Amino acid sequence: xxxxxDKIIILLLxxxxxxMFIPYWFMMIISFETIEEASAIPPHFIPLNPVLDxxxxxxxxxxxxxxxxxxxxxxxxxxxxxxxxxxxxxxxFARLYFPFKNVLFLIFLSVIMLPGIVLLIPRYLIIKQxxxxxxxxxxxxxxxxxxxxxxxYRQHFLSLPIEMEEAAIVxxxxxxxxxxxxxxxxxxxxxxxxxxxxxxYGWNLFLWxxxxxxxxxxRTLPIAIALLQGQYFSNWGVIMASGxxxxxxxxILFLFTQKSFIEGIAFSGLK
Amino acid sequence: MRRRKFLILxxxxxxxxxxxxxxxxxxxxxxxxxxxxxxxxxxxxxxxFLGLENYIKLFKDSSFxxxxxxxxxxxxxxxLIGQFLLGLIIALLIDYAEKKKIPGRGIxxxxxxxxWINPTLIAGFQWSAMYDYYYGTLxxxxxxxxxxxxxxxxxxxxxxxxxxxxxxxxxxxxxxxxSALKTVPLELYEASKIDGxxxxxxxxxxxxxxxxxxxxxxxxxxxxxxxxxxLLIWAITSGGPGLKTTTLSLFAYRxxxxxxxxxxxxxxxxxxxxxxxxxxxxxIRLFRRR
Lengths: 271, 290
Prior knowledge:
Mean pLDDT of chain B: 83
Distance between the termini of chain B: 49 Å
Number of helices of chain B: 15
Structural class of chain B: mainly alpha
CATH topology of the largest domain in chain A: MetI-like fold
Oligomer: heterodimer
Radius of gyration of chain B: 23 Å
Order of helices and strands of chain A: HHHHHHHHHHHHHHH
Number of helices of chain A: 15
Order of helices and strands of chain B: HHHHHHHHHHHHHHH
Radius of gyration of chain A: 23 Å
Number of domains of chain A: 2
Number of domains of chain B: 1
Helix content of chain A: over 70%
Helix content of chain B: over 70%
CATH class of the largest domain in chain A: Mainly Alpha
Structural class of chain A: mainly alpha
CATH architecture of the largest domain in chain A: Orthogonal Bundle
Largest interface: A-B, 82 and 95 residues
Low-confidence stretches of chain A: none
Largest sheet of chain A: none
CATH topology of chain B: MetI-like fold
Distance between the termini of chain A: 39 Å
Number of strands of chain B: 0
């Protein structure tokens, strides 16, 4: 009885995994094929004569190396700044007392409910005033902070026992020392998880850089790829090759940090 | 003294950034929904306060009505029926596989997650390549089976984007369920087995009540994310053909950034906020502790 149901479940899992993987698999295959082969019927399940033409096209002719580095620069800046700013603020909300603390925290949280599209225009007006239109700085500076990060760190610091900090205070340690030498080392797992989530977020960022960036050499990867679609209308090989390049960094990160990754996502839902 | 220094350094930047990056822009956005503000032209500099005029106009706008209905289809189809139920089913299967130590479960897990960590735009292109009438993978498969080609994005555009969004978003709910299922004490299941409860009843009367809060939060999260989904639909159909896959978030974007009607676009976004709240209240009432 149990044996049969086990087999059905294995079968279902395998079938599901195959279906989930199909779009990926064909993206990879098409990226190694010429236009003629990509449109062949019946479809190829592996590239028959793999060629690198599409990759050469995007890196040599279309300057994708630069877009890749732009995206990496934006994303890594966001990861570092969000970790520092959100952990500091989260710690302040968790441990320190100041007027209107709870009111402020509620205001922070309620902002999450508003559709992101509302923020785009006022934020654009802000960087226009500051003269940051068409700079990567403009893209980065308005994303260096997130309510989610504060919330995550606040909940994390609240879950740590307060005795350690009290002992450190008695020993005369400053709050800075407590924060950097006791609290942050204790927060390594959550910081790794949060950093990964910010990486995914930053790497995915689309509408905001699309509005801010106007000159071609400052484009980030998703914008460059979106513009490809118009240029290489049904040349799927080139588009799919750019897709493979864009999905590599998150996949590589994921493969090396699976456990923290999963914990991070899970934590964002469980609170 | 030291504490104050830390307080200033820790909280002041946060309050400053929060105010300028989130609170003021949000208030400005809500305010602009009551004006005829425009992105370009003379209304860009000299806008007028209109009161509720934008909202009254919205309710007479047939495009708004169409996008509203599309949004409900999209949210119910891809978030509730798709991501939530499918995510739950996959999580239960993997959870079972974990308890029985069935090999290969990690790979399934990883593959489902791949779709989620993938950049949204790429997911959109992957599915465009699946649905394409001439070169699409799906039609090539149909051809292999000797079935007539189907114009996926022409005849069933909404279903197509819903399937793509389910593919992309299911991993999140699956993960939440998987971690949540681990928090249910095993003894409860053992006890109910002895009492003769079957698998469905165990789920209905033990798992669901214990995980009530997590279910509510998860439903609110995926509803909001699906309501705001822009890039995936934009990459696959751009909202077409006609308005058939235009949800409120595409409609708001089009109005504000392509028709340059900021005020009207903001009003659409405020309506989206209200829909989010309505869904939230429904979930909270549905899973309230009794």
